[in-house]
Design goal:
Shape: globular
Strand order of the largest sheet: 1-2-10-7-3
Largest sheet: 5 strands, mixed
């Protein structure tokens, strides 16, 4: 269903629960695990890589599916019948079957390296390339854009076109705007008993998106969409879910594919263009895989994004460092029975376990004395990173880990880095006030793993010298190669 990391209603009410825990709990305790009393229950906060690995080894005892199911029911406002389908054998006590299990498997297979993922990536790449061509079509004159606004719209359209195909309901601006209105009000939906009254605007927006998706499925437009949306629809129909409930669940699924990608592109562009050395080194890497040919109409420059995966370790490291600095998601588990974690810590049934990424990502013991610095080479294999502290790949928790490792990480990473590659090859960005500033992130939504900027930055987009007088061709070759961002995807 919805694969994301949430910190629970109590922390959601604080608005920035992960930041609060990082700033306060670590200063006071610096413990691998500690307990926070939450009304009549307990919240176990885990900061240790070793203990996180122990949690991941017992996914049926420290379980995510029950939490995910409750989240989906609340956020999507599905029917009683659909909720019963989702809750039945949700944690696999009776075996690996059920609506929740099958939905996850169908999504995982569609997003694994292969033809389905390649098809989505190709549509996404062509959409982003077209958007950047529109900037060039204005000539050599510079263009001012609001960076966060531009990235959110373009990523929304590129992503949803790749998922839903030619009949993408998000092509309707009303649907696109309603989705982001729903996302903005998500916290109020989660923490209130009667959200239809207390979060009326967000609920109306959710219903508008849900109605558009219902019409999409009723017209069988998903048959022209990606393997992902076809798999999700077919799995739901096999479990006898109604079209209305399929559409409502799809609203929640759209949160997972949209909410984090746009801000990740925003931060990548901000960090690169405000750091001349990082920008130049990434450009040099990418230029090394660009193919130049002379065509009848002039010079043609071809970039195979698959080659970027294999030949651009500094670019990949820069992305990992952005994730380390700008993600605040938390993996959450429900304790299904009393259990002794790592043979030392008693966790009581019905309590909640939370593993906040921000705590791990800001720990000097893990990353070294320069943990607060942005080092774009921190994750490279060589010795030329600014930090002398060799990072532990398992400490980067942006995509989660274990059985809940984000199945969409390959698509998201390719989309983010492809967009950045197209930008840095073709354009320079300059802040309108001649000074780069880093926006605050205090208003980041509970559904977000990547921090969302509170304010936008207006930038001047200027074609690079020589980039406007040639044709650009961005493509993706068939390959099982992936960006090794998550520890589970690395083979070194």
């Amino acid at each position: 269903m919805i694969t994301m990391w949430i910190s629970g209603k109590t922390l959601a009410a604080r608005g920035n629960g992960n930041k609060w825990m990082t700033r306060n709990a670590r200063r006071k305790h610096s413990l691998p695990i500690y307990t926070l009393p939450i009304f009549a229950s307990k919240l176990y906060v885990i900061n240790s890589i070793d203990l996180i690995s122990s949690v991941q080894r017992i996914p049926k005892i420290l379980a995510f599916p029950p939490i995910e199911a409750k989240f989906a029911m609340t956020v999507c406002a599905t029917s009683k019948e659909a909720n019963e389908l989702l809750a039945h054998n949700v944690n696999g006590e009776e075996g690996d079957w059920g609506y929740s299990y099958d939905a996850y498997e169908s999504m995982h297979s569609a997003l694994a390296p292969g033809p389905g993922l390649d098809g989505m990536n190709r549509i996404m790449i062509q959409n982003i390339a077209h958007s950047l061509n529109q900037i060039r079509a204005r000539g050599d004159q510079s263009l001012n854009i609001r960076l966060a606004e531009w990235t959110r719209h373009e990523i929304t359209m590129a992503t949803t076109n790749s998922v839903y195909g030619r009949w993408n309901p998000f092509k309707d601006p009303n649907v696109e705007n309603a989705f982001w209105e729903f996302e903005k009000g998500l916290v109020m939906i989660l923490i209130n008993r009667l959200p239809s009254l207390t979060a009326r605007k967000a609920c109306r927006a959710r219903d508008l998106v849900g109605d558009a998706l219902r019409h999409y499925f009723e017209a069988k437009h998903h048959e022209y969409g990606s393997t992902l949306v076809q798999n999700r629809y077919n799995t739901s129909k096999q479990h006898k879910a109604s079209v209305g409930d399929i559409a409502r669940f799809e609203v929640g699924n759209t949160l997972a594919v949209l909410v984090n990608t746009a801000p990740a592109v925003f931060w990548m562009l901000l960090y690169l263009y405000s750091n001349p050395l990082a920008l130049q080194e990434c450009r040099d890497e990418v230029e090394s895989v660009v193919s130049d040919t002379n065509e009848t109409n002039g010079r043609k420059r071809t970039v195979n994004i698959t080659s970027i995966k294999q030949n651009c370790p500094i670019l990949t490291s820069t992305f990992q460092e952005v994730l380390r600095q700008r993600t605040l998601g938390a993996q959450v588990r429900q304790v299904m029975q009393d259990t002794m974690l790592d043979g030392r810590y008693l966790l009581k049934k019905d309590a909640t376990v939370i593993m906040p990424s921000l705590v791990m990502h800001t720990d000097p013991a893990v990353w070294g004395f320069d943990v607060s610095e942005f080092d774009h080479k921190r994750f490279t294999k060589g010795k030329d990173a600014q930090s002398s502290h060799k990072p532990n790949p398992k400490a980067l928790r942006a995509f989660g880990g274990g059985t809940t490792l984000c199945p969409g990480r390959h698509f998201a990473t390719t989309e983010i880095l492809a967009t950045v590659v197209m930008f840095i090859l073709r354009y320079d960005l300059f802040p309108l006030d001649d000074r780069w500033t880093t926006p605050k992130t205090e208003k980041t939504n509970i559904a977000a793993v990547v921090m969302e900027p509170d304010t936008d930055i207006t930038v001047r987009v200027v074609p690079r010298e020589g980039s406007a007088d040639c044709e650009w061709d961005f493509k993706l070759a068939d390959s099982s190669m992936v960006f090794g961002v998550a520890a589970e995807d690395r083979h070194d």
